[in-house]
Write a structure and sequence with these properties.
Layout lengths: L1 H8 L3 E2 L6 H7 L15 H10 L5 H28 L1 H14 L10 H15 L9 H18 L3 H18 L4 H28 L4 H14 L2 H5 L5 H7 L6 H11 L3 H19 L13 H17 L8 H31 L6 E2 L4 H9 L8 E4 L7 H5 L19 H13 L4 E4 L6 H4 L1 H10 E9 L2 E8 L1
Length: about 475
């Protein structure tokens, strides 16, 4: 309850155009990959578009969805923690998630926010696949969940391969015949494909083209030189913020190796570690803390289970000093984590400044300044366009030209995309262009678009906004 209240009213959020503008555009009839250039998998956008029919307020919808997903993660962390280590482990897992969620970037609604609870369900489902009576049926369900994860974000393919490898090792560990291990892998792959194939069929039924779907979700990610142009490694400050959350990872490994005689427990805890590594690896090549959202629920379960073991009195007799030392460590960690994560909530509740929504709040003043100069029935084109300013289209109730694509980013300005943008501007020229000079060095990697606009539009006025110059251009 406190977490939901904090996120809804106090904590700073990041609600970019992917979760406000794009669902609104799709609700208006624009089709993903045909009219909207986006390299991500489609499921998040379609879910938000469906929900937009019921809550036709972009920021409100995004906040409600974010809070719903956070609440789901808290309950799933409790459920999975309880199934792994008892009620105490469940409570501590849920508490761990609630404390650390702001520092792991949960203020940003993103693909990983939708993906995080799916990963927890995978960890929860896996032990059932080892059952002799219904193992293959459970494995089929596991594959369906992975297929859903792939439709949320393509990075889930890393998790798919990690599960395949782990399941093959576990099959051999359980002395299953090689043929049985191969059958398990084949069933997992086939069931993974079912949600993907079904969604592609739905996309084609709505009027989309397979070529557009394949280009944006697969080909574009191969040819856009993203790794070279956008790579970003973790900063020291980022690592300092989250480092205490990982204090029990190594102890957890020793707990599993030394104290778990049950092969099922070792198998499911081993998968949890594999999932933690795989989900953390997908934060690259462009590292941001919010890309670690998928790893936090799994980390919560691992840490909650170890804390519960430290706090409980062991069944076997050990020296009282050792037990007291373990309890002291556990209590110290609870105090440290409570202070470290709790300070974020405390500062948000105490702040006298209005809550800020990144990629949205600052645009309201620019919207007001533009509407003083542009009629309400006239639309604009933003040059360049990126996640920091694209919600201006939504705020102005103005659909962008035929293809919306974030031209600010150099990995988006491929020749084939620039040709489409220029073609749309020539065919359906907007009356106004809002030009942000030197933003993301658009004059270098998007020189053809800038030259085209400068040849067709004349500057009318210069506006100062957020410390930068914004030029209002009118069609000649």
């Amino acid at each position: 309850m406190i977490q939901s209240w904090a996120y809804y009213s106090y904590l700073p959020l990041s609600l970019g155009p992917r979760v406000i503008l794009q669902p609104w555009m799709m609700h208006q009839g624009r089709l993903l990959y045909r009219d909207i250039g986006d390299e991500h998998a489609p499921l998040m956008y379609f879910i938000l578009t469906i929900l937009y029919s019921f809550v036709q307020n972009g920021p409100l919808l995004a906040r409600c969805v974010l809070i719903s997903l956070l609440t789901m993660n808290v309950w799933l962390a409790f459920w999975v923690g309880k199934s792994f280590g008892g009620t105490t482990a469940g409570v501590l897992s849920a508490l761990f998630f609630g404390l650390w969620s702001p520092l792991f970037g949960y203020g940003k609604l993103w693909h990983e926010t939708f993906l995080s609870h799916v990963y927890l369900l995978l960890v929860m489902q896996y032990p059932s696949t080892l059952s002799k009576s219904h193992g293959f049926r459970a494995l089929f369900v596991l594959g369906l969940l992975i297929g859903v994860a792939l439709l949320i974000k393509q990075h889930a393919i890393v998790v798919l391969f990690s599960i395949l490898c782990w399941d093959f090792l576990v099959s051999r560990f359980f002395s299953l015949p090689l043929s049985q291990a191969i059958k398990r892998s084949a069933l997992l792959l086939i069931s993974t494909l079912i949600p993907v194939v079904c969604f592609v069929g739905y996309y084609l039924w709505t009027g989309g083209k397979l070529s557009d779907f394949v280009f944006w979700t697969i080909i574009f990610n191969i040819i856009n030189d993203y790794v070279r142009l956008a790579s970003k490694f973790p900063g020291i400050e980022q690592m300092r913020l989250i480092a205490p959350a990982y204090l029990l990872v190594l102890p957890a490994i020793f707990f599993v190796l030394k104290s778990a005689d049950d092969r099922i427990i070792k198998a499911k805890m081993g998968l949890a570690f594999m999932m933690l590594i795989a989900s953390s690896a997908t934060a690259f090549p462009r590292f941001e803390l919010f890309h670690l959202q998928t790893s936090l629920p799994i980390l919560s379960v691992i840490s909650g289970c170890v804390l519960a073991r430290l706090l409980q009195r062991p069944k076997q007799s050990i020296h009282e000093e050792i037990h007291a030392f373990g309890m002291g460590i556990a209590c110290s960690l609870l105090v440290l984590w409570g202070w470290w994560g709790g300070m974020v909530y405390y500062n948000a509740f105490r702040s006298e400044q209005p809550r800020r929504i990144w990629e949205y709040s600052d645009l309201i003043s620019l919207r007001d300044a533009l509407r003083e100069r542009i009629n309400s029935n006239e639309c604009v084109y933003l040059l360049p366009d990126d996640e920091g300013i694209a919600n201006l289209y939504y705020l102005m109730n103005c659909l962008p030209p035929a293809l919306w694509v974030p031209t600010s980013y150099p990995w988006f300005t491929l020749d084939i995309i620039k040709q489409r943008v220029l073609q749309d501007l020539a065919t359906l020229p907007p009356k106004w262009v809002i030009y942000f000079p030197n933003r993301w060095e658009i004059e270098q990697h998007g020189s053809e678009i800038v030259a085209f606009v400068q040849s067709r539009y004349q500057p009318i006025e210069r506006i100062l906004w957020n410390g930068q110059e914004v030029y209002l251009l009118h069609l000649r």
